[in-house]
Amino acid sequence: MVLRLYFTTLIVLLLSTVAYGKELLISAAMGTKELVKTVGEEFQKETGERVIFNFSSSGKLINQVVAGAPSDVFISASKFWVDYGVKRGALYKETVKPFAETSLVLIAPKNGKVTNLTEAKRIAVGNRLAPVGKYAVETLKNLGVYEKIKDRLVYAPTVRQVTVWVMTGNADLGLVYYSDYLKFKGKVKLVKVLPDNFHKPIMFYVACVKGGDLKECNRFEKFLLKTDSSTYREFGFKKVKNGS
């Protein structure tokens, strides 16, 4: 029985290798999950190359890459973390390109009654490793409410976790990307789209990882940048023209 299981597993692995040939490892910010998965799956169909995803906060991912974790492509929700990766010698500077942008929004539980930040008891934002947290704090300061509500902020490891806390009622309000709101719009309520001039531009970047497959990463980058604008809009993003 054990021997049969061993050979069955071996056959599956061999078939997988034959079917896909190469593998492309993509470490991407959680806020890009639906967009990157869609593009990655299309890339896989077109090239026959198996695409493997690792989604988390930008800061956590780049720290994994810097520590030597295997990856070919890094996708960040802020320039800060790609610059950090370049400085640490983990990313090829010449491959860094912006490809999408979105807005910051304030959301509440679907049946929530609180819509004012100063009235909320718990406000969910991203932590220091999640760029959405930096955009949120910057916005709250520019709105002039940060000092009043800072003790009521609860910090999540990813933008997706912020959305989940709001969706489940564990937070009265949350600050997330418009793209994340769109994913869960049937389960949370949009309170307002926050002014873009109250925070740095929410730009998403792609870069190739040193030690990874540079040729295939470049191939994926081109595929991502050539993806139609309608796909970006479907997931709440605006495509950055010509990757610049």
Would you spell out the secondary-structure blueprint of this structure?
Blueprint: H1 2-20, E1 23-29, H2 33-47, E2 50-56, H3 58-66, E3 73-76, H4 79-87, E4 97-102, E5 104-109, E6 123-126, H5 131-143, H6 146-149, E7 153-156, H7 159-167, E8 173-177, H8 178-183, E9 188-193, E10 202-208, H9 214-226, H10 229-234, E11 238-239
Parallel strand pairs: 1-2, 1-3, 6-7, 6-8
Antiparallel strand pairs: 3-10, 4-10, 4-11, 5-8, 5-9
Helix pairs in contact: 3-4
**Count of discrete alpha- or pi-helical segments spanning 4 or more residues:** 10
Number of strands: 11
Spatial shape: globular
* Mean pLDDT across all amino acids: 91
Class from secondary-structure proportions: alpha/beta
> Strand content of the residues, in percent?
15-25%
The CATH architecture of the largest domain can be given as 3-Layer(aba) Sandwich
Give the spatial strand order of the biggest sheet: 2-1-3-10-4-11
What is the CATH topology descriptor of the largest domain? D-Maltodextrin-Binding Protein, domain 2
CATH homology group of the largest domain: Periplasmic binding protein-like II
SSE pattern, N- to C-terminal? HEHEHEHEEEHHEHEHEEHHE
Query: What is the total number of structural domains?
Result: 2
Detail the poorly predicted runs: 1-20
How far do the termini sit from each other?
A: 57 Å
Relative helix content: 40-55%
Kindly provide the name of the CATH class of the largest domain.
Answer: Alpha Beta
Major beta sheet summary: 6 strands, mixed
Any idea what the radius of gyration is? Answer: 20 Å
